[in-house]
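So, can you check these tokens?
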Amino acid sequence: MKYKKLNKNISSKKKFFKINKILEHIFNINICSSNESISFLKKRNLYIKKIIYKFKIGYLCKNKFFKIRSKYKKYISCIKNNVRYFLFDKRIIFPIRNIKGNRIGFIGRNIKNDSYSRYIFSNIKKYIKKNEILYGLFENYKYIKKSKFIFIVEGIIDLISMFKIGIKNVISTLGCNISIYQIKTLINTKKNIYFLYDGDKAGRNAYIYITYKYFYLLINKNVFFIFLKYKDPDYLINNNLNYFKKEITNKISLEEFIIENNYFNNVKIINYFINNFSIISRKIKIIKIKNKYFSFYFSILKTKLKYFYI
């Protein structure tokens, strides 16, 4: 690939996107330059040409980083004490794109189990905030458009592993701390939303946070939670695929989740559940939870009638 000279008259935004496109290509063709990167991908059954090409998975090792003009190096490195440090050295790299397909930055995944951060981001704040990114919305758009629902996962590798087994209507929030911008973007897709976070404490706490924080936005939007008993989608796909396929069909609605866990210390939630009795009772499919809702509803009703007749 010949790197064309960048036009000085080009806008800073377009220049930024163009440089990232060049870097994406450099990272991508270096994916097979190291035994470490190959071993990492093979371990997760991702050493597949179509997958590497589809998601433009890349790699950077400073010792094998072939000739690149210094003007490109400066975007992924810094100099301290006359030594050049590369941001993504010995990391698997994933380009981040916006909905228009522009490369807005990169994520580097540490492939060693050491003290360094597992994921690091390039400087993307200039054109987008980290909590506005929905990875896969561009890459999987045509599959999402055809589907009635979307799976929401935490990690990029979870998304890619699901794509590998034919589940392509997936978006990643790049962690379990979901923002109001991301929630509103998901709602605007007008698809049923299936949260499929990791089966650890952080994943379960994220469901509680989503329920409390965004209840007023998600209610009546066909939002569901899927609880994995352990690990994450990527691990289960590679180690217990049959269990994973079975578990992703066992979803629980937002309403059922609230009732099952007695999240009724929020006045807005209480009022909604009281005023929409018939709608909610039809939505709830699990008999045990439906009975719990009836019990809650009539206890509140009884309290109201008691005050009415005093």
The mean pLDDT is 84. The first strand starts at residue 58 and ends at 60.
